[in-house]
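In this supplementary section we document a worked example of the pipeline. Step one takes a protein sequence of length 160 as its only input; no multiple sequence alignment statistics are reported here. Step two produces a three-dimensional model, which step three serialises into structure tokens for compact storage. The input and output of this example are shown verbatim.
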Amino acid sequence: MSPRRYASPKREAAAARTRQRLVRAAVKLLQSRTGLRALSLESVARAAGVSRLTVYNQFGSRRGLLEAVFDDRASRGGLFRLPQAMANPDPHTGLAHLIEIFCGFWEFNRRTISAVLSAAGSDALLRDRIRSRSERRREALSVLVGRLVSLSEVRPEAAA
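The serialised model returned by step three reads:
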């Protein structure tokens, strides 16, 4: 007999709030003058007013924390709007919307995302995980360009 899973909406909501507080603390550290060098599980715990174990239980590692920061910044930076750009029946308008979304994302996140990408430079697993997220966005762009090619608006060799 397997143990019964304990589920409490209040507990889950509190855990989600704690996780968000930890991500915000990490973002603040990454945006500080010392940036990535300031980021550790201990420094995030201190900034959020929790124990290091709480940070570890939420993210498992510094890499997990950086992934959570990247995902949070993607969401807050507007990347959730990508499906709207893709769904636009006019590929010109969709492409313009996609470019607007990406520019807004980078403007909103420049310092934080630069720090995460810097960390990925020396962490192969983080680099692979960030690359897979970016690949999905590249595929979205390819779909829109493919739609323009099908309308004979872009030469296939120019789209490659």
